[in-house]
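testing teh design pipeline on a random one, pls ignore if ur not involved
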């Protein structure tokens, strides 16, 4: 069975798409014309290929949509500023050269500006821009005609030339700038294996959330969206009967990594941004709270039947796929529930009255039931994952040759 966008290279299947021409120069693609993502080594059947293809397809479509909607006017302005800086360098200038220096007198600053203006006139740096606007003023060019790209670059270069140097250093910073700034500041070795892992994690994060200008709102919206997406990946894996991946700890590491890189840039450029990490623990607590409500219903059913039917709590754990982090919070919830009946049995006035409808044998059974559930949660919390041992073949005895 043929699958759309699937190619086979060296015996391995990959999802391959052409990158839209308007996005090929985006930092996410680095000038590439094709996007290629492996389907994994374990994909074999048509059903597995289709499921893996759909996952890669949805990821690619989400990436394209994110990049197209993320601050396009600002991204274009940033590209224009980059071209304008190169334009200035070609004529021997830097941003802020024509701005007033705070340690110089007014006369000294005027002399510097005069010298730069003579140099600009002599080199003809702004001649084409002046000619265009003169023709527009005299009606030779339609007023509504768009400004040519080379004139836009010259205009931006003139603005940068007059921009105070303190401001030119604090220009708009994009999310796509963060890794380069971080790597340069930390003097990172690109060949380092651990660094490559961090770099791939950053690229995975960036490819999903898309580029943006670093602001409080934009950063937090992307962090929240990424956490929701990764948690959904885990839920999809569970539904497909696969290992719950990524784990909560993995999501924590990915968010910590992204925040560390962005924070470095925020400090370096003195941006007014305070990053608050998404509360992954809050989602775990909410999951435990929902399970608590189910347990309350189970307890009511057991009380109605006087605990005559044995309840299989292990089956409840397996059915709900309760992980270690959720089990920790669920245990706390059950301990709190159990504390009420225990206080009632010990003679606490308020709780004794609340549980007065239960006789002592039922109270004992209820406490025992709670203790059983607490114990099962503790088993999940304390049990370490067993590492699969490599099965070796039968030992072969080698007889020594007689001399």
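output:
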């Amino acid at each position: 069975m043929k699958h759309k966008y699937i190619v086979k290279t060296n015996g391995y299947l990959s999802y391959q798409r052409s990158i839209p021409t308007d996005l090929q120069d985006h930092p996410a693609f680095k000038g590439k014309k094709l996007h290629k993502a492996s389907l994994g080594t374990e994909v074999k059947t048509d059903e597995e290929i289709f499921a893996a293809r759909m996952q890669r397809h949805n990821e690619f479509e989400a990436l394209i949509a994110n990049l197209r909607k993320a601050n396009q006017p600002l991204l274009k302005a940033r590209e224009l500023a980059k071209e304008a800086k190169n334009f200035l360098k070609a004529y021997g200038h830097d941003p802020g050269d024509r701005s007033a220096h705070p340690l110089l007198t007014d006369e000294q600053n005027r002399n510097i500006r005069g010298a730069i203006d003579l140099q600009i006139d002599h080199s003809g740096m702004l001649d084409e821009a002046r000619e265009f606007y003169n023709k527009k003023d005299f009606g030779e060019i339609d007023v509504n005609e768009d400004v040519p790209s080379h004139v836009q670059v010259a205009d931006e270069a003139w603005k940068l030339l007059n921009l105070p140097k303190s401001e030119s250093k604090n220009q708009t910073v994009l999310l796509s700038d963060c890794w380069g700034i971080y790597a340069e500041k930390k003097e990172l070795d690109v060949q380092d294996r651990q660094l490559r892992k961090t770099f791939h994690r950053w690229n995975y994060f960036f490819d999903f959330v898309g580029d943006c200008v670093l602001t409080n709102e934009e950063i937090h919206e992307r962090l929240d969206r990424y956490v929701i997406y990764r948690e959904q990946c885990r839920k999809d894996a569970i539904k497909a009967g696969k290992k719950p991946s990524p784990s909560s700890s993995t999501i924590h590491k990915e968010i910590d990594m992204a925040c560390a890189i962005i924070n470095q840039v925020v400090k370096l450029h003195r941006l007014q941004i305070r990053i608050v990490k998404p509360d992954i623990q809050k989602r775990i607590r909410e999951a435990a709270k929902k399970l608590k409500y189910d347990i309350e219903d189970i307890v009511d059913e057991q009380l109605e039947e006087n605990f005559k039917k044995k309840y299989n709590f292990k089956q409840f754990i397996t059915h709900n796929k309760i992980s270690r982090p959720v089990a920790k919070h669920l245990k706390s919830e059950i301990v709190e529930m159990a504390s009420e009946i225990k206080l009632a049995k010990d003679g606490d006035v308020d709780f004794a009255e609340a549980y007065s409808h239960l006789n002592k044998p039922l109270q004992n059974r209820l406490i025992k039931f709670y203790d059983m559930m607490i114990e099962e949660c503790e088993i999940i919390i304390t049990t370490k994952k067993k590492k699969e041992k490599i099965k070796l073949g039968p030992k072969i005895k080698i007889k020594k040759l007689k001399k």
